[in-house]
From TrEMBL:
Domain of life where this protein originates: Bacteria
PROSITE patterns for this protein: PROKAR_LIPOPROTEIN (PS51257)
Record protein name field: DUF3558 domain-containing protein
Origin species: Streptomyces lavendofoliae
Length: 173
C-alpha cells in the first residue's frame, strides 16, 4: 500500500510539474509606449497574451495614425488615432471600426463604446478640440482573452494618453 501511495504521489508530482512548465507566460516587457503614445502598463498588460517577444509597427494613412503591437510576430493589438467630423458619435466611429459595433456597451458619458475585442473613444483635447474636427482613438485585439472591462480601461487610458501626447495639435489642428 505504501508503495502504491508513493507511485501515485510521484505521478501527481510529474503531472503538476508538466502543467506548471507548459502553461503560457509573458516573457516580454509590456511596452509603456504605443508608437509615441505613453500608455499605462496597468491598462495594457491585461489585454496582451503570453509570448516571448514584442514589437511595435507604426503607420499613417491620410490623417489616421495606426500602431500594431505584435507578440512573437503576430499582430495582437491595433490602435488608431483618427480625426472625424466635429459632431461624430461613438456609434459613427464604431460603424467603421473593427471588432466593435454601434450597439455595443457605451459609457454613461457616451464618450466610449466597447466590446470584448474592440473599443472607440473620443479624445478630449486640452483647450478643447478644433472647431471643425473631433479626434477619436480606437483599440482592437485579435484574440479572445480580453474582457469588456479591460477594453474599457484600455480605451479610456489610450484616449487620455492621446490627449496628453501632443497628437491633438498634430492631427486635429
Amino acid at each position: 500500500m505504501a508503495r502504491t501511495l508513493g507511485i501515485q504521489v510521484s505521478l501527481a508530482s510529474v503531472v503538476l510539474l508538466t502543467v506548471s512548465c507548459s502553461s503560457p507566460s509573458r516573457e516580454y516587457a509590456v511596452p509603456t509606449d504605443l508608437c509615441g503614445v505613453q500608455v499605462p502598463v496597468s491598462a495594457l498588460e491585461p489585454v496582451l497574451p503570453a509570448g516571448d517577444g514584442v514589437s511595435l509597427h507604426p503607420s499613417a494613412v491620410g490623417g489616421n495614425k495606426r500602431c500594431r503591437l505584435h507578440v512573437d510576430g503576430e499582430s495582437v493589438l491595433s490602435t488608431s488615432i483618427e480625426p472625424w467630423e466635429k459632431d461624430a458619435s461613438a456609434q459613427d466611429v464604431a460603424r467603421v471600426a473593427l471588432e466593435v459595433e454601434p450597439g455595443d456597451t457605451q459609457s454613461e458619458d457616451r464618450r466610449f463604446l466597447y466590446s470584448k475585442k474592440g473599443a472607440v473613444g473620443r479624445v478630449i483635447c486640452p483647450g478643447g478640440n478644433a472647431a471643425e474636427r473631433s479626434l477619436w482613438a480606437t483599440v482592437r485585439v485579435t484574440h479572445d482573452d480580453a474582457t469588456e472591462v479591460e477594453m474599457k480601461t484600455l480605451i479610456t487610458a489610450f484616449a487620455d494618453a492621446v490627449a496628453a501626447s501632443g497628437e491633438c495639435g498634430q492631427v486635429v489642428g
